[in-house]
Design a protein that fits this description.
Elements: H1 5-10, E1 15-19, H2 37-42, E2 47-51, H3 53-56, E3 66-69, E4 78-81, H4 89-101, E5 108-111, E6 123-126, E7 135-138, H5 141-149, E8 154-157, H6 164-184, H7 189-198, H8 200-206, H9 208-219, H10 226-240, H11 247-258, H12 267-281, H13 288-300, H14 304-307
Helix pairs in contact: 4-5, 8-9, 8-11, 9-10, 11-12, 12-13
């Protein structure tokens, strides 16, 4: 019996490449292992592929620390062991390119923050190998390769995902990309129509302009081959998910959703919902609170057009946790 769209996407787990030191092996330069709450939570929900570029290019554990050096604007970026001054740039790039080329289809990367190999942001790039040298911020060598070769993937580090909004964006993108990968294998237009329909409110919260473009792409399926439609859709889906949704966009979608059942509410119920949304606007409560209020009313009034929207549950609820640093809410 043919599985439904929902059954097929629910039967496949996201595939995530993760830094091995984040709970899998004590392979950091100092011989230690770091913990990551999100990695712990994801263990039952994703398929992990672990990587430690430094160990996999032949370095021992523990080992001399490595650093990225770029002497001036015209100089190449070098990966150097601080004490021995051994340069490892070629080995790291060759390993990274082969490792990433040999990967199966992956949906995301969760890498070690600030690492000279895995880091994707805030990595210190020194002006020289000498002690006390000044530095600027950039990406690690392996992390840079990941970003360049997987522009559509959900990519974050263990430091940034401590923040609720960044973590929510990572998980949302991870599951949307995974779901698209599943339907892309068969390239059925009816699957893409359902994908677009169930993600409509979510995409509206991310980027209304791209939502309209995506709708037009689906509408053009009579003029293009299924492969062309999927290719165009994939490009614009990536553009739509490129940045975290602004809180104002979330509020617009919440109010639009409320419109589906507002005529069935009492004055006090409307007042309560609008007040809850206002508290979110004023950063007094997290987004999950008004989202839950709207969803509970959608269920109460059996609004099927709302209940199936990924906007209300883009990833398994068990992965949600509103405890975080509270910093960098829209970055």
């Amino acid at each position: 019996m043919k599985l439904s769209y929902k059954e097929r996407i629910n039967n496949v787990k996201p595939v995530v490449v993760v830094s091995r030191c984040l709970g899998f092996e004590a392979c950091r330069y100092n011989g230690q292992m770091d913990g990551c709450n999100l990695v712990d939570k994801l263990n039952d929900y994703v398929e992990f592929i672990t990587v430690c570029p430094e160990v996999q290019i032949g370095l021992d554990t523990p080992r001399e620390a490595i650093r990225i050096v770029k002497e001036d604007e015209l100089s190449p970026v070098k990966l150097v062991q601080h004490v021995t001054e051994r340069e490892l740039s070629t080995e790291m790039v060759e390993f990274g390119e082969k490792f990433l080329k040999d990967l199966p289809k992956v949906d995301g990367f969760l890498l070690k923050s600030k690492s000279p190999s895995c880091g994707i942001k805030e990595v210190k790039i020194y002006k020289s190998i000498q002690k006390g040298s000044s530095s600027v911020k950039g990406k690690g060598l392996f992390g840079d390769l990941v970003i360049n070769k997987f522009p559509s993937a959900a990519i974050e580090d263990d430091g940034r995902v401590k923040n609720y909004n960044i973590r929510q964006h990572f998980l949302t993108k991870l599951y949307i990309i995974k779901n698209f990968r599943v339907i892309e294998e068969s390239m059925l237009i009816e699957d893409l129509v359902e994908f677009h329909s169930t993600n409509k409110l979510l995409l509206m919260s991310y980027n209304q302009k791209q939502l309209k473009i995506l709708g037009r792409i689906i509408g053009s399926h009579g003029e293009l081959t299924a492969k062309q439609v999927y290719e165009e859709y994939a490009i614009n889906l990536n553009l739509a998910l490129n940045k975290l949704p602004r809180y104002t966009s979330n509020i617009n979608v919440l109010i639009k959703s409320m419109g589906y059942f507002s005529d069935k509410l009492t004055h006090r119920e409307k007042e309560f919902i609008l007040n809850t949304i206002e508290q979110y606007r004023e950063s007094k409560i997290p987004f999950s609170v008004p989202l839950y209020v709207i969803k509970s009313n959608a269920i109460r009034f059996e609004e099927k057009n709302l209940i199936n929207q990924t906007f209300f549950e883009p990833y398994p609820l068990q992965l949600d946790n509103v405890t975080d640093s509270g910093k960098g809410l829209d970055k």
